[in-house]
Amino acid sequence: MRSRLSLIIAVLMLAMSLSAVAFAQSDDPNRPVAHPTEEGEDGNGGFFDRTPTSDEPQTDEDQSDEATPDEDGSPAASPEASPVGPVESGDDLAAMVLDGSFMPEGYYLSGESYVSIDDLSSNLVGVVSADDLEATGMTGFYESVYTDGVSTQVRTYIIAYDSAEGVQQGFDILENEELLVPNGAMTDLPCLDGVGETPCEITDGTTTEPDGTSQATYDISFRIDRFEVGAASETFDGSEPDKDLVQSLARDLADRVNLVLAGGAPDGIDFSLPSQQVQLDGVSAYEGYEDAIELFPLTESGDLPDGFLSGYTEAYTYSDSPTSFYPLVTITSISMESADAVDEAMQTADLRVGFPDASEIDDFDAGVDLPTAAFAYTAGLSGSTEPDSVRVFVQVDSLLIVIDVQGEESLDAAQATAEALVEAQVDCIGGGDCSVILSGATV
Description:
Blueprint: H1 3-17, H2 19-25, H3 86-89, E1 108-114, H4 117-122, H5 130-135, E2 138-147, E3 152-161, H6 164-174, H7 177-180, E4 184-189, E5 197-208, E6 214-224, E7 227-235, H8 243-261, E8 279-280, E9 283-290, H9 292-295, E10 308-317, E11 328-336, H10 339-346, E12 359-360, E13 372-377, E14 389-396, E15 399-406, H11 411-429, E16 435-436
Parallel strand pairs: 8-16
Antiparallel strand pairs: 1-2, 2-3, 3-7, 4-5, 5-6, 6-7, 9-10, 10-11, 11-15, 12-13, 13-14, 14-15
């Protein structure tokens, strides 16, 4: 992925995570999702104020006829809600990209998510349409971004097609620098020796924006089966990307993709986790596997939970503001070696909440008879002076579920939403409906 397209993807990812700035400014050292965002000036309302008025157009996601809560006040199930990602593509693309263990020291996870064809095409208006992309047989796109927080990012990405021929068709569009990067000076180099199959290429060059700023890109892409696979780095300070690093990442990425396609599980990947999480009707802000260090980034390594196997997080924004992701809901599932390991983690106070004003909630009641610990706190970037967020830890056998409701209109609203989500999540794990509508519901 190069040039203009790589810039677009980077912007999409940064828009979804507000990565480096949000991470650096956040005062929560133990958040299950490391990407809280700044609150807008309008002070968004609660989760249950998201139904469009009669004068507003409704999208498929609004589903206002089905957004009626159950009589007990819990959010209603949504039979039409369809998660983006493995269910769409038939492949767990999130398991294929590289994790933090492959990254240079000092780099941290900036953002990772599935990117829809509509999102891609909307940022290529007048150049490439959604129909053009769909005609290639593209079925999924996933990218993971790590940053040094200063001037450099590295990315690994997977694009799934329904055939090897589709990869070539997609390559002809997405690797066309003359089409996508009129402001770039790009050179196509031979494929990385011994990695993947054709189509493949290395792209090296820069793009220059009207304001004079520039971005240097070094991107290696290749085909494995019916997937376009890539590793890339961008710099924003005039320096050259570390080409040796990108080549090393590309080789590691090829090995990992081949392992997954052969039915193997990379370290830190539990394929069962995504299917055990409720799918919400908010806008997906972030999704992917995380290891223990990424889930608890500022916890001393010796204090990380013993018996950790894998973690998977999905975040949804219910914001009406273009400058804020609040309210933000995150759901993290952590699989551990045993129920005893989860119990021990639940007793480790510094793995719970790192905000100075965090306090345990005594009257938290999700209607489930399971070990639960809930905490109230003030979201670091919400602008609120009063607690407006709730974090809940729930043990379900050898699973540790962490649910965050951040930047709500009030603590009561955050607690009500968290209680309903705990009940829905536990029901999902037990084989119940895993689709949940929050928009438009009332508690």
